[in-house]
Amino acid sequence: MKTKTVLFSVLALLILSVIIWGGIAGCVFRPVLTIVEEGESPYRIIVSRDISKEDQRAAAELQRHIKRISGVEILIMTDDSPVREHEILVGRNRHLRELNIKIDFNKLEDDGFTIRTKEKNLVIAGGREKGTLYGVYAFLEDCLGCRKYSASVSIVPKKDVVRIRRINRTDVPFIKHREVHMPDAFDDDYADWHKLDNRNVRTRKWGMWVHTFRTLVPPEKYFKDHPEYFSEVNGQRLPDTQLCLTNPDVLRIVVDGLKEMIKEKPEAKYWSVSQNDTFYPCACVECRAQDEKYGGHSGSILHFVNQVAREFPDKVISTLAYQYSRSAPIDLLPAENVNIMLCTIELNRSRPIPKDSSSASFRKDIEDWGRLTDNIIIWDYVVQFRNLIDPFPNLRVLQPNIRYFVKNNVRMMFQQGSDTLRSEFHELRTYIIAKLLWNPDANVNAIFRDFTDGYYGRAGKYIRQYIRLMHNALKRSRGDLLIYGYPWDGVKTYLTPSLIGRYAKIFDKAEAAVSHEPQILDRVRFARLPLEFAILEISRWNVSKKLSLFKKVDGKWKANPEMRKRLERFVDLANEFGITKLEERGTSPNEYRALMEDFLQNGMRDHLAINKPVQLITEHSEKYPVGGAEALTDGLKGPADYHCNWLGFEGNELKAVIDLEEEQDISRISMDFLQDHNSWVWLPKKVKFFISQDGLIFKPVGEIKNKSDEKKPGAFIENFCCKFLKVKTRYVKVETTSLLQCPKWHKGYEGLSWIFTDEVVID
To answer: Are residues 233 and 262 in the same domain?
Structure first.
């Protein structure tokens, strides 16, 4: 009897639950509008007779997509037709008033929209610019299941019946300028679907973008006769630096130049008056005094820009808070029509800005600027620019960083990615950022899953597994992630040999899962390319037997044939997938193949000092670690890039002793050195070579001077080779004589200079 009572109570509770939830479903969740059924639609799309271009496009897009979904084309009619029961009202029109549908369009601003149902009618209406179009795309995505994963990959589901539930949604974005500088976002249709501004929009709104000092006061035109217009650096005026912002003639030239430019493009609202993309602000007496008065270099810049802005009250004058000018001034407010473009270029990308200890100075800067103005645009950086096709696990910081910017009242954002160049997960990264710029509180995990399942199909779960494993590894390691980094930087954090093996197995499964779907397989193969690039680059260091470009054959180092095949596969796929540059400024896949082939031929050198002990008498720098003294006898040579296999000395000479461990016949000692004066790296003036039997008394055997001009541009290698008659010795000493400081002609004058060498070769 007790059992029956309990059973009855449970059944009653279940029935009551069904009644309660059924009532709620009938009120909120039950489909209330059937737009298409049995090949017909009772609906008409209603637009204003005086429809704007964007609203007209919105109506056409809605009509086109419903036809693609159901095969039914809904008629578009103007609002001078009679009001009827089944209407989809698109944009501001007369039927809204007749149906007593009240919308405060002013509150929708430029891009906001409202989507709502009233009885049998559906309303999609938006703000002054593209609000209605954005509303249509939101409706298609969130209500009808359409997707636009990339500029070329869209999902439009097929349905015989199109029904929607009751809706009452209004979106007005807090972030007013939303730009993602990535390949897909350059496509206007993609940008509009994801409610983004892109370069085409910016070109209309901005007369000049950034780094404009050179354009406004060209040194080619003015420096010869007026060096005083340009920065004074270490007592001399230099052309390729910044402007002297306390010089009244510079102000006059900038204002007059802007007036002429504005005449040619009067519709543009924003005009940038901003520092060049280099350092070296003016250090003349007047500029220094102004910087001291206002607490930093931003003082002289903002004082100057405020004066310019005063001449153009109906325009917004934008200036950079970037690198040396990033900190906010003291006792100086930006004018009301001055925009501050605050940049995050130096920041670590492995942890969110609010939680990263190394980002403390940036947090102070953004908060200080936020107290001075609410007219701020953030210029953020979201890819690895030095190596675009390289694993860059920064996806987990995207949302907390955007939220942090919003918390500090930033309402304009420019997310710099790889421009028009393809880069690691650029489709996924753009998709996530676009969603977050519209709604910083969006469910990023749901966005991530939706994209990976939709774009990679059956391989989606493996792509997620790969991404999560890499991000978890970086988090556990507490390692950093920089936008000008290299694969080698992750060899102890997220690109360890064991992890690389696990990543490869995951991609094997991903490829197998879609092996019979060629289009999706290509997407997976493209997603794998960064891992392949990392394997090739890390193998330059002979990390392990599997991760080495070289292998011992009969006691001699030879190019690893497996790595050569891997290189060929990587280059062929990169070309197939339209990769034109592997880094921001150049290096095509074919150029990379040539560089790597040269390294395979010359990157490992057998000689008498291989793996012999080295004593460094002078101190090397650990800014670019290669293993310390051992790097001089590990056999590995360096390419024309100081980041790879080069031991560096900053403001210091190289003095080292190599112990051959027994007396040997030698007749040649040589060393390569690197020059790249744009990076403050010079060849030594000369290198002296010595030998010794006991390691105490050394005898000179030669001195080699450099053959290249210290002003020679570009990065290049010069060999310092000392030949002599064969002699028995155990110890070899090398000593450089170098600049130690940047020369007077150089913009880094008096700063510490570098020398880099890769190997002491003894034959």
So the answer is: yes
